[in-house]
User: Which sequence fits this backbone?
């Protein structure tokens, strides 16, 4: 199973804790024996690779961090556009 969170901002290490919580929740409440392991994907608009690397260093949960524009085209095609995601997050 896959679980994604989009943050319309720069990566912060604390986002991994939040995503790890959601992955654990999905594993406990939604995942069935026939499902593959739940993987968390955090999409951000900007990231410092060194900060991401050190933040992920102690993670036991399978989590990835990527900028939307760096995702492979096949993954981008399966997700709403970056503009659609940003619009959904606006509180106007």
Assistant:
């Amino acid at each position: 199973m896959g679980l994604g969170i989009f943050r319309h901002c720069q990566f912060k290490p604390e986002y991994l804790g939040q995503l790890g919580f959601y992955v654990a929740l999905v594993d406990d409440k939604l995942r069935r024996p026939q499902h593959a392991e739940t993987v968390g994907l955090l999409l951000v608009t900007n990231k410092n690779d060194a900060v991401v690397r050190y933040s992920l260093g102690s993670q036991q949960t399978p989590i990835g961090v990527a900028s939307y524009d760096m995702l492979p085209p096949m993954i981008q095609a399966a997700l709403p556009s970056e503009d659609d995601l940003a619009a959904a997050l606006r509180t106007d």
In short: DSSP finds four helices and three strands in the chain. The chain has a mean pLDDT of 84. Residues 14-29 form the longest helix (16 residues).
